[in-house]
Amino acid sequence: xPRQVLLLRGxxxxxxxxxxxxxxxxxxxxxxxEDVRTHxxxxxxxxxxxxxxxxxAADCASLIATRFGLxxxxxxxxxxxxxxxxxRDPLGAVATExxxxxxxFLAGELPKGTIxxxxxxxxxxxxxxxxxxxxxxxxxxxxxxxxLWSLLAGRxxxxxxxxxxxxxVKRLLELAGD
Length: 178
Hints:
Elements lengths: L2 E6 L12 H10 L3 E6 L4 E5 L4 H16 L5 E5 H10 L12 E6 L7 H8 L5 E5 L2 E5 L8 H7 L7 E5 H12 L1
Antiparallel strand pairs: 1-3, 1-4, 2-3, 5-7, 5-8, 6-7
Helix pairs in contact: 3-6, 4-5
């Protein structure tokens, strides 16, 4: 069965959208997905499914709504799609700290003009590159006060998405290859 990665937005961050990873694994397993594993407590799931990633994301969002009563945005990438995200690495030459290097996974491409807004928000040495349904962002001073990060983390992109740091992206790819 092809390996896929689910990325849930805003799970177990703060007091809202709480889902135990064991309960999530159980729910996905009961729904027929194979070899369900999670990474960290922030909504990273690796599983076996023959569904197209967009269909898988929609089905899993529906399952989470039904089972846990939560409206969670879910992005899905096949193992090969995730490998391509890592292979591209457009900011690898400057992004020297993996935890300050973020990839935002989107449900679709950014609407016209959005990348220009992101580029304008990049301050100092921050960098941003959009390729297809991913936005790569380098925050050398961290994300805490970054206007660029605020835009990427908010809901104003015109398309749903969720971000992971480079360390997590690479680890998910490793887990999807097991």
